């Protein structure tokens, strides 16, 4: 959600931010609605003042037994009540849905994306992203590498056909040592984040209400990307939703910031806009597991927290011995709620391409305004909005993909990275 006061005082800067997002100027429409809304509020307040004054005079007339004066005041009070009801139902801006300005204003603001940070590069799509750094080098395999689904199916441990019979497309059944690998990765990720990086492990709900999905920006604009139950709950697309909402409508202590949470959960996405993309394999699934990182930070520290969070995800890949690069996303490739995002892309020999394995975003106060998540400064009055950050640390499925393709051997077996072997019960090779 955007700061209306900022838009009033800086309409040109706000429109420039929207322009970077590929949107037309929004401030004229916002300010028009805001002016009309404030006008109606003032008229309502003035009428309430008049009504209160008349109510006092009616009490005095009643006490004096002046029935004539009492009836006159009663009539005036009735007229004011009628005017107030007319104001409440007054309709403006039919083009936006025949609703009062306050509702129209809220509806408009909730559908506008976050303003990009000043150092985010301009661009229309992923071609405008900028490489920040890379780690390691591409593995030199002495044979033609296979893709992960070829390897998994040949091992007899990855089954898409049976998954399709059970659930349809974009599902998979993992068995044996690949199922063990999923469990091993989850434990490895959580241990690193909790023991080395100070995150608090959380087991959150997988079903959330409208308010939680609204708070992190999934609703109202991206409802089609989610799965909804018959009870009205939403299946979480990532643990970012429940973890960030742990501070929904709360005032946290400044001394407690930053709050850092991590969780291992299943995630559910409809992939509504992914028709024809990654139809084979585990890259884009309706159901997958992920370890998520969320930080609730002081506004002065969110930039440093963003760099730190990205480094936490990178450390996982370093320990697994996987080659990757870090990309700063351009304005046209960032998510709705983000003001700045780093994507970590791991090298996949089977695809001969880099693919995203983690996305770490600083959302500033954008989500906090939607959630009313604040902190009380040690000095000064009032409260301030916290800053929220989220990142993948890491997705289990895509990490399995990366291990299969990077650690494959000529005979189709998979060498387990040394750091994972204790979590695999000492198994060093899947064959």
Explain this structure.
The chain is of the alpha+beta class and 431 residues long. The protein has 2 domains: 4-110, Helix Hairpins; 126-430, Bira Bifunctional Protein, Domain 2 (BirA Bifunctional Protein, domain 2, 2-Layer Sandwich), CATH 3.30.930.10. The protein contains 13 helices and 18 strands. The strands form 5 sheets. The chain has an 8-stranded mixed β-sheet with strand order 1-11-12-13-16-10-9-4. Strands 5-7-6 form a 3-stranded antiparallel β-sheet. Residues 91-98 have low confidence and may be disordered.
Proportion of helical residues: 25-40%
- Any low-confidence stretches, pLDDT <50, length ≥5? 91-98
Number of helices in the DSSP assignment: 13
Q: Determine and state the CATH class of the largest domain.
A: Alpha Beta
Rg result: 27 Å
What class would the helix/strand composition place it in?
A: alpha+beta
The total of beta strands comes to 18
Strand content is 15-25%
Globally, the shape reads elongated
Q: Alpha-carbon distance between the termini?
A: 51 Å
Q: How many distinct folded domains?
A: 2
Strand order of the largest sheet: 1-11-12-13-16-10-9-4
CATH topology of the largest domain: BirA Bifunctional Protein, domain 2
Q: How are the SSEs placed, and which strands pair?
A:
Layout: H1 4-9, H2 11-20, H3 27-64, H4 67-88, H5 101-110, E1 130-135, H6 148-155, E2 158-159, H7 160-167, E3 173-174, H8 176-195, E4 200-201, E5 207-208, H9 210-215, E6 227-228, E7 234-235, H10 240-244, E8 251-253, E9 259-268, E10 287-297, H11 302-320, E11 324-328, E12 340-348, E13 353-362, H12 366-371, E14 374-376, E15 384-385, E16 387-395, H13 396-406, E17 414-415, E18 429-430
Parallel strand pairs: 4-9, 8-14
Antiparallel strand pairs: 1-11, 2-3, 5-7, 6-7, 9-10, 10-16, 11-12, 12-13, 13-16, 14-15, 17-18
């Amino acid at each position: 959600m955007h700061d209306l006061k900022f838009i009033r005082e800086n309409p040109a800067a706000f429109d420039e931010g929207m322009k970077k997002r590929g949107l037309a100027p929004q401030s004229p429409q916002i300010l028009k609605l805001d002016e009309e809304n404030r006008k109606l509020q003032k008229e309502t307040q003035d009428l309430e003042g008049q009504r209160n004054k008349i109510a006092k005079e009616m009490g005095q007339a009643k006490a004096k037994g002046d029935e004539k004066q009492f009836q006159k005041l009663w009539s005036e009070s009735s007229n004011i009540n009628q005017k107030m009801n007319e104001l409440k139902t007054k309709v403006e801006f039919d083009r936006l849905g025949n609703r009062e300005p306050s509702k129209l204003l809220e509806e408009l603001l909730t559908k506008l994306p976050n303003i990009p940070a000043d150092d985010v590069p301009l661009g229309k799509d992923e071609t405008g992203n900028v490489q920040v750094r890379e780690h390691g080098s591409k593995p030199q395999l002495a044979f033609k590498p296979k893709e992960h689904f070829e390897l998994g199916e040949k091992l007899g441990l990855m089954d898409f056909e049976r998954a399709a019979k059970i659930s349809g497309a974009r599902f998979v059944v993992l068995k044996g040592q690949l199922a063990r690998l999923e469990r091993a990765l989850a434990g490895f990720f959580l241990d690193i984040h909790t023991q080395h990086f100070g995150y608090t492990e959380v087991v959150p709900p997988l079903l959330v209400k409208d308010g939680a999905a609204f708070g992190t920006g999934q609703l109202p604009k991206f409802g089609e990307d989610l799965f909804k139950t018959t009870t009205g709950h939403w299946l979480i697309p990532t643990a970012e939703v429940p973890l960030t909402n742990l501070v929904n409508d709360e005032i946290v202590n400044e001394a407690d910031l930053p709050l850092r949470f991590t969780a291992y959960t299943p995630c559910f996405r409809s992939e509504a806009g992914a028709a024809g993309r990654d139809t084979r394999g585990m890259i884009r699934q309706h159901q997958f597991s992920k370890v998520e990182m969320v930080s609730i930070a002081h506004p002065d520290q969110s930039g440093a927290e963003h760099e730190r969070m990205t480094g936490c995800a990178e450390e996982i890949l370093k320990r697994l011995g996987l080659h990757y690069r870090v990309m700063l996303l351009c304005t046209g490739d960032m998510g709705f709620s983000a003001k700045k995002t780093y994507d970590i892309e791991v090298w996949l020999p089977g695809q001969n391409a880099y693919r995203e394995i983690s996305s770490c975003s600083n959302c500033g106060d954008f989500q906090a305004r939607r959630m009313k998540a604040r902190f009380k400064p040690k000095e000064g009055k009032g409260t301030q909005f916290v800053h929220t950050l989220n990142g993948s640390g890491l997705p289990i499925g895509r990490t399995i993909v990366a291990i299969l393709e990077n650690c494959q051997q000529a005979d189709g077996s998979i060498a387990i990275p040394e750091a994972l072997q204790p979590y695999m019960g000492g198994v060093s090779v899947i064959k």
